[in-house]
Each structure stands twice: as C-alpha cells, then as structure tokens.
C-alpha cells in the first residue's frame, strides 16, 4: 500500500512540476506582452515630450527676442527717467509742489 501511495505521490509531484512550468511560461508571455505595450507607451511619451520641448524652446526664443525689443524701445525713456531721477530735478519738483500747496 505504501508503494501505491509513493507512486501516486510521485505522479502528483510530476504533474505539479509540469503545471508550475506552464505557469512560468504563461507569466513570461504576459511579461513580454506588457513590456511591449509599455515600450510603445514610452516611445509615444518620449515623442510627445520632445515635441513639447521644441515648442518650449521656440517660446523661449520668442520671449528673448521680445525682451531685447523691449530693451531697445525703452532706451530713450530710460535716459529721460535717469535725468528725472537726478537730485536737482527732484529738488525743483519738490519746490514747485511746496509753492502750489501754499
């Protein structure tokens, strides 16, 4: 009777080993499928990021040009503002303000 039990246990062990091997193969296939899907998503994401990066670079270049243009346009006014901030001009303006207040 122990011979039958050992033979049965041996057969069950072999079938469990086969089932475990099949499960490993199924997991490997699932991992490959998920890996391919993930790689496709990563490629799409990288493409999207690179296009957005190009757009951001173009926006930054436009902003730099606008800042330079603004600096050029403000040059005459900066000279006037620099003259208006001179201490003698400020003293004259304060004097005029005091005279009008009387």
What secondary-structure arrangement, pairings included, does this model have?
Elements: H1 2-84, H2 87-101
Please give a structural write-up.
The chain is mainly α. The protein has helices at 2-84, 87-101. The chain is rod-shaped and about 125 Å long. The model has no long low-confidence stretch (mean pLDDT 92).
Comma- or semicolon-separated keywords:
single chain; mainly alpha; 96% helix; rod-shaped
Number of helices: 2
Using the alpha-carbon principal axes, give the shape: rod-shaped
Distance from first to last alpha carbon: 127 Å
Give average pLDDT, whole number: 92
Largest sheet descriptor: none
Structural class: mainly alpha
Counting DSSP E segments of at least 2 residues, the number of strands comes to: 0
Number of domains: 1
Helix content: over 70%
